[in-house]
Amino acid sequence: MASTALQHVCAAPIARAIRSRAILASSSVASARATDAGPHVLLGMSEPDLQKLALDFGQQKYRGKQLHHLLYKAKVKDIESLSQLPQAFRDSLREMGWKVGRSPVHHAVTAADGTIKILIKLEDNRLVETVGIPVEDDQGSLRLTACVSSQVGCPLRCSFCATGKGGYSRNLRSHEIVEQVLALEELFKHRVTNVVFMGMGEPMLNLSAVLEAHRCLNKDIQIGQRMITISTVGVPNTIKKLASHKLQSTLAVSLHAPNQKLRETIVPSAKSYPLDALMEDCRDYFRETGRRVSFEYTLLAGINDGTDHASELAQMLHEWGGGYHVNLIPFNPIDGSEYRRPYKKAVLAFSAALESRRITVSVRQTRGLDASAACGQLRNEFQKSPLLELPASEPQFSPV
């Protein structure tokens, strides 16, 4: 009896020690995995990844499912707010350097039409823009579109773009893209139904993070792939790479001109990616994915908005197979720009000229014109270099 009792007394501390070493070892694995991927950020992780993380920390697998709900439904912003999780698990996550990966809203501007543009202050004190565009249909249902940024600034410096004038800092990480959508859902108290990668930056220059964010938006936040649009002004070899993923999302190519010579004056990067090569890649993209390419065309008064330009554009599109859609965008005025917004008559004439040549066309309704609507414009009012360290405060809202 004494021997049996002694075995029990000794076995309990030994078992606890073994469990402690196992948790420590698995935590080291979790830490190593996070280190390989950069800073330890929960946002952007899938449910299976979060379940594996929970197991790595010696927790039950279902804790990963709870984490997933807290991140994407409850929209928790810091580790301590993960209140459904055991305190020991939260303490371990914090001690190992894990963060949720949410940033504060630094400033917000609300336009008369309900559009809200926000600046999010990132961990390195950079500011990035995102825009929420609400549209109510005839049945009263609300469609909320998030226009998200993929870079802090943009290195391509298109001549009409406020973002390019503001300079370029760095690529966004995938969670910094995802958090833009969550921030808008909180402000509007409504789920985002559509996402367009048409904010600050060139998505194709940050394709790996864009694809990671796309996966999260689709699988974790549950926005349908066909409700997501990835825009590009054209970066060599990247359209082919995107096609290989066979996404059901829309590819929108910023064209802005019907010929190479004019395009180079508007889009400097076009010099390294001739229009013929871009159109060939767009044709191959359609063949590979079965998804029609949409072309964005910003109308600049007296520059590219004539009916002769429309005729040339239609001819070029037909030469490359037809079936394309053109989205016309009347220029949003920005400070310091030599370009002007075209008159409505010119926009309608351009649209009619395309339609008469069997090109499907739409004219984008300008939203948030009274809220620094042009991409990068609001950010330029506040920052062209990192903010000085500021005390935490409530976001500043400026209704207009």
Automatic annotation (TrEMBL):
<dbReference type="InterPro" id="IPR006638">
    <property type="entry name" value="Elp3/MiaA/NifB-like_rSAM"/>
</dbReference>
<feature type="domain" description="Radical SAM core">
    <location>
        <begin position="140"/>
        <end position="370"/>
    </location>
</feature>
<dbReference type="GO" id="GO:0008173">
    <property type="term" value="F:RNA methyltransferase activity"/>
</dbReference>
<dbReference type="GO" id="GO:0051539">
    <property type="term" value="F:4 iron, 4 sulfur cluster binding"/>
</dbReference>
<dbReference type="GO" id="GO:0070475">
    <property type="term" value="P:rRNA base methylation"/>
</dbReference>
<dbReference type="InterPro" id="IPR048641">
    <property type="entry name" value="RlmN_N"/>
</dbReference>
<dbReference type="Pfam" id="PF21016">
    <property type="entry name" value="RlmN_N"/>
</dbReference>
<dbReference type="GO" id="GO:0005737">
    <property type="term" value="C:cytoplasm"/>
</dbReference>
<keyword id="KW-0949">S-adenosyl-L-methionine</keyword>
<keyword id="KW-0004">4Fe-4S</keyword>
<keyword id="KW-0489">Methyltransferase</keyword>
<keyword id="KW-0408">Iron</keyword>
<dbReference type="InterPro" id="IPR004383">
    <property type="entry name" value="rRNA_lsu_MTrfase_RlmN/Cfr"/>
</dbReference>
<dbReference type="InterPro" id="IPR027492">
    <property type="entry name" value="RNA_MTrfase_RlmN"/>
</dbReference>
<dbReference type="GO" id="GO:0046872">
    <property type="term" value="F:metal ion binding"/>
</dbReference>
<keyword id="KW-0411">Iron-sulfur</keyword>
<dbReference type="InterPro" id="IPR013785">
    <property type="entry name" value="Aldolase_TIM"/>
</dbReference>
<dbReference type="GO" id="GO:0030488">
    <property type="term" value="P:tRNA methylation"/>
</dbReference>
<keyword id="KW-0963">Cytoplasm</keyword>
<keyword id="KW-0479">Metal-binding</keyword>
<keyword id="KW-1015">Disulfide bond</keyword>
<dbReference type="InterPro" id="IPR058240">
    <property type="entry name" value="rSAM_sf"/>
</dbReference>
<keyword id="KW-0819">tRNA processing</keyword>
<dbReference type="InterPro" id="IPR040072">
    <property type="entry name" value="Methyltransferase_A"/>
</dbReference>
<dbReference type="Pfam" id="PF04055">
    <property type="entry name" value="Radical_SAM"/>
</dbReference>
<keyword id="KW-0698">rRNA processing</keyword>
<protein>
    <recommendedName>
        <fullName>Radical SAM core domain-containing protein</fullName>
    </recommendedName>
</protein>
<keyword id="KW-0808">Transferase</keyword>
<dbReference type="InterPro" id="IPR007197">
    <property type="entry name" value="rSAM"/>
</dbReference>
